[in-house]
Write a structure and sequence with these properties.
The chain has 191 residues and is α+β, with helices and mostly antiparallel strands. 44% of the residues lie in helices and 27% in strands. It has helices at residues 11-27, 72-86, 96-108, 125-132, 134-149, 176-190; strands spanning 31-38, 44-55, 61-70, 94-95, 116-121, 156-162, 165-170. The strands form two sheets. The chain has a four-stranded mixed β-sheet with strand order 4-6-7-5, with helices on both faces. It has a three-stranded antiparallel β-sheet with strand order 1-2-3, sandwiched between helices. The N and C termini lie far apart (54 Å).
């Protein structure tokens, strides 16, 4: 059974909201937040919350007043647009635009991580499209992408940058040997 509205809030957002409210009350400002809730039947919904603390004559908080709006449809549309903007429609991998944004963002950070880019050129892949057809080529690219995705981790990200080129961005690696091992694993998957 639910004890409070807090029980409806998706666990990933609870601490964020518990930090946001006291800060807003301290600064006497209004909060605005978008987050997920879980309904009684287990359905996930996005809500927009706007709220403010109500003070008594002595200036003490006596209540919280707010507005909660279901924005699930709008949020799903936003997330779908974001997905389409960042992913290849053929392979489902992150696309060239998102690769460029990621590299620009990562290079602007000032930290001493070892980073690498491994380019995979699928030579003569255009011949697959020409001889076996576009649909077969797309299915083959999807299959290759799924298999190569198994090599991904939090620090190894795969991008589809053109119809015949993929890129692994390695955010952090131990040494050159670990990159050689990754290259060998990639070759093995492609073979």
């Amino acid at each position: 059974s639910l004890n409070s509205f807090n029980d409806l809030i998706h666990p990933a957002y609870r601490q964020y909201l518990w930090d946001l409210w006291p800060q807003a009350l301290l600064q006497n400002t209004r909060i605005q937040a978008e987050y997920e809730i879980m309904t009684k039947n287990g359905e996930i919904k996005w809500v927009y919350e706007q709220g403010v603390g109500i003070r008594n004559e002595d200036g003490e908080i006596e209540a919280l007043e707010g507005l909660l709006i279901d924005i699930t449809q709008r949020k799903q549309y936003e997330l779908e647009l974001k997905y389409r903007n960042e992913h290849s429609s053929v392979s489902g991998l992150y696309n060239r635009r998102f690769f460029e944004e990621t590299i620009t963002r990562e290079l602007s950070r000032n930290f001493d991580r070892k980073r690498a880019v491994l380019l995979i050129r699928l030579g003569q892949f255009n011949m697959v499209y020409l001889t076996l057809g576009y649909q077969f080529g797309e299915e083959l690219m999807k299959d290759i992408s799924i298999k190569l995705t198994e090599l991904c981790t939090e620090d190894i990200i795969l991008f589809d940058i053109s119809f015949d080129s993929l890129v692994f961005y390695v955010r952090e690696y131990r040494d050159e040997k670990s990159l050689i091992t990754l290259a060998e694993e990639i070759t093995s998957v492609l073979n």
